[in-house]
Specification:
The complex is a heterodimer of chains A (376) and B (346). With 376 residues, chain A is α/β, with parallel strands linked by helices. Chain A folds into 2 domains: 314 residues, HypD, alpha/beta domain 2 (Rossmann fold, 3-Layer(aba) Sandwich); 58 residues, no CATH class. Helix content of chain A is 39%, strand content 16%. In chain A, strands 2-1-7-8-9 form a 5-stranded parallel beta sheet. In chain A, α3 links the parallel β1 and β2. Helix content of chain B is 29%, strand content 25%. Chain B is globular, with a radius of gyration of 20 Å. With 346 residues, chain B is an alpha+beta fold. Chain B has a 7-stranded mixed beta sheet. In chain B, strands 1-2-7-5-6 form a 5-stranded mixed beta sheet, with helices on one face. In chain B, α2 runs parallel beside α3. Chain B contains 8 helices and 14 strands. The chains are: A alpha/beta (376), B alpha+beta (346). At the A-B interface, α2, α3, α5 and α15 of A face α7 and β14 of B.
């Protein structure tokens, strides 16, 4: 834990917050997008917005893999769970995500064999221990989790474990950032780059954001000090009119990425021509599918997948929130029809989704503080 | 009073696991279905035990069912939990447990040595807590219809003289005390299930909190305004219930909440908040500000209370909510748990 505590040192944090206030031009309004849901979570969990001057606005990005998954894919995965003899496995993150007829947890309560695993290799272990069952792993995540899925598939093939398959929903981060930058209503000054994803892909893939889009980007860690330090770095760049890719998270992110992980991904996966993102629509070459050579372990090939598209309720403005055009509370459904307890839109589902994070940590605080100013 | 036509607000089409997890969904089920039908329409804050007047004598009454997997875990077992849980529910309602009755639901095929071990664990826990097990009942269900064994205990106790705890007694400025480090039980169980390749030197905190409650009562008497044992849903859920029931704000200072490094580490790894993790041997007390030092001192001098801490206070705002101030001056609202705590990976 010491490793974490150093990045939560109150004095260092106060000093960094002071530096942010010194660097921020009071005549300017700054909009920084944190791409990754992990950052969104940290920002709310540690109350970091309280430490920033009011002219620095943090805009939450699309980097929550649970949130961007369309409901149709969840239905497809759950339809496999309904087949006799199938054990449905997924990360805890997925368990409360609603499909049309309920979440994986609700399927479990109805008697389906649904299990939480902590890694795809745990799912493979389950397959080895249950040779009379078929174990399906519902794979989600950006480049952070895709390598471990790839390595697990390689192991399944090498060991000839045939009662195991993967329903691949891995997505890639760069096309999502591109979609946001291409959106005409986008007004972002700079990016806090995703830390975990970058441990795999490195910093090089972000060069176009700096060079072509002329926006600074700083790849950042997830502790309070990491996030604040990355804001200092962005402010310095803006002050000097620079657009560079910088790496704040050097203790975990090598500039070139993790070659072994990238190779495993390339061996097992290929790009899908297009994939639907909840809130953003279809984005070309933005997701991974399992290569022909691993077809036997591809749940989409083994099971007949209904492939039905389920559209989100029209009133839900997930897309606008995902692109940072609207704040969570500006959506018509926020806090009324759509709450973490009974989510309508994608971003309310995972605690890393910007709506759920905003609702859990910020919304009620603001309500309370509004009351405070009224009663004071 | 309650009749077949009583309207209920509970709209969920079926019972889900979350309804039993002690968080928001549980509250919805209790407030929306059980309370209106069973207790009539008057919404009363639901405490850990009911106080019932029998011919002029007030007694405290409570019941609790225990379903835990695995049955045995570092620091305890289901039998010990079943005794301590009910003793503690009575204690934090301001009562000393006198007698328990116990119901077993056993799954056919349960090995006798497992049953014997749990019955012995109950006897030992009852003797340690100074409570009599006065009767019981046993049912056996077919193999596959229960998870080895379920235990329900119901307890009766007399009120500890001089204290009366209720959310209505809580005032602005009151201090919040916690009897010791949080999260030990919940994380121990999570690790004991063996689904994670994680190990930690951690034991469940299951114990009777009665000696600590009595020490508190003796030291400050009516200065104790409210108590609760933060079991399922953890400290966050208990304090949200308090905030809801008294209409005031609960202000916590994160740095003063005792959490062991092992629990903090596991929570960091799994994306969980220690404030949402279950405890089986701790309790929260709200005491009058001017008696907080004496109360804390009394807890710390009692065996098992050395790590007790003052973790926050009651304020006007945020009305009905819990606000945590982080070590470096940021703040966040901590809500009740929604459903079970699930680890986040991606």
């Amino acid at each position: 834990m010491r490793y974490v505590d150093e990045f939560r040192e109150p004095e260092l944090i106060a000093r960094t917050a002071d530096e942010i206030r010194r660097l921020a031009d009071p005549k300017r309004h700054y909009r920084f997008m944190e791409v990754c849901g992990g950052h969104t979570h940290s920002i709310y969990r540690f109350g970091l917005a309280d430490l920033l001057p009011s002219n620095i606005e943090l805009v939450h990005g699309p980097g929550c893999p649970v949130c961007v998954l369309p409901m149709g894919r969840i239905d497809d995965g759950l339809s496999m769970a309904e087949q006799p003899g199938v054990i449905f496995t997924a990360f805890g993150d997925m368990m409360r995500v609603p499909g049309t007829r309920g979440s994986p947890l609700e399927y479990k309560a109805r008697g389906m064999d649904v299990r939480i695993v902590y890694s795809p290799s745990d799912a493979l272990k389950l397959a080895r221990g249950n040779p009379d069952k078929h174990v399906m792993f519902f794979a989600i995540g950006f480049e952070t989790t895709a390598p471990s899925t790839a390595l697990t598939l390689m192991r399944a093939k090498a060991q000839g474990i045939r009662n195991f398959s993967v329903f691949c929903n891995h997505v890639t981060i760069i096309p999502a950032i591109r979609a946001i930058l291409d959106s005409p209503d986008m007004r972002i000054d700079a990016f806090i780059g995703p830390g975990h994803v970058s441990t795999v892909i490195g910093c090089r893939p972000y060069a176009w954001i700096a060079n072509n889009e002329e926006k600074p980007i700083v790849v950042a860690g997830f502790e309070p000090l990491d996030v604040l330090q990355s804001i200092v770095m962005l402010l310095r760049q803006l002050k000097q009119n620079q657009n560079r890719v910088e790496n704040q998270y050097q203790r975990a992110v090598p500039w070139e990425g993790n070659r072994a992980a990238l190779k495993a991904m390339a061996d097992v996966f290929e790009l899908r021509p297009y994939f639907e993102w909840r809130g953003l629509g279809f984005i070309s070459q933005s997701a991974l599918r399992i290569r022909e050579s691993y077809a036997e372990w591809d749940a989409e090939r083994r099971f007949s997948v209904p492939g039905v598209r389920v559209t989100d309720p029209k009133a839900a403005q997930c897309g606008e929130v995902l692109k940072g055009v609207l704040k969570p509370a500006q959506c018509k459904l926020f806090g009324k029809e759509c709450t973490p307890d009974q989510p309508v839109g994608a971003l309310m589902v995972s605690s890393e989704g910007s709506c759920a994070a905003y609702y859990n940590y910020e919304h009620r605080k603001r309500q309370a503080l509004t009351n405070l100013s009224l009663t004071a | 009073m309650a009749s077949a036509v009583t309207k209920i607000r509970f709209r969920d089409p079926q019972v889900e696991m979350a309804h039993g997890a002690g968080g928001k969904a549980s509250r919805r089920l209790i407030d929306g279905l059980f309370a209106p039908i069973l207790f009539g329409l008057a919404p009363v804050p639901l405490g850990d035990a009911a106080h019932v007047n029998i011919n002029g004598t007030c007694v405290a009454l409570t019941t609790d069912s225990f379903v835990v997997r695995p049955l045995r875990f570092p620091g305890g077992s289901i039998g010990e939990l079943a005794v301590n849980g009910t003793v503690n529910d009575l204690a934090v309602s301001g009562a000393r447990a006198q007698a328990l009755v116990v119901s077993y639901v056993l799954e056919a095929g349960l090995p006798t040595d497992i049953l014997e071990a749990e019955v012995r664990a109950m006897a030992a826990a009852a003797s340690a807590a100074g409570v009599v097990i006065a009767g019981g009942d046993t049912k056996v269900v077919e193999h596959g219809k229960a998870d080895q064994m379920y235990i329900t205990t119901s307890g009766i106790g007399h009120l500890i003289p001089g204290i009366g705890v209720s959310p209505a007694a809580v005032r602005c400025g009151d201090k919040i005390l916690l009897s010791g480090p949080i999260g030990d039980h919940g994380i121990t169980i999570l690790l004991a299930r063996g689904e994670l390749d994680l190990e930690a030197d951690l034991r469940s905190d299951t114990r009777s909190v009665l000696p600590l409650v009595e020490a508190l009562a003796e030291a400050v008497g009516a200065g104790v305004h409210w108590m609760r044992d933060p079991t399922r849903g953890g400290v966050a859920t208990s304090l949200n219930e308090l905030a809801n029931d008294c209409g005031l704000g609960v202000l916590l200072s994160e740095g003063s909440i005792p959490v062991r490094d092992e629990v903090r580490g596991a929570c960091e790894l799994l994306g969980l908040d220690p404030l949402h993790i279950a405890n089986e041997g701790q309790f929260l007390a709200v005491v009058a500000a001017e008696q907080a030092d004496a109360a804390l001192d009394a807890l710390r001098r009692t065996p098992g209370g050395r790590e007790a801490a003052l973790i926050g206070e009651i304020g006007e705002q945020p009305a009905g909510a819990v606000l945590v101030t982080t070590l470096f001056g940021g703040s966040r609202i901590v809500d009740m748990l929604v459903g079970d705590p699930l680890p986040r990976i991606c």
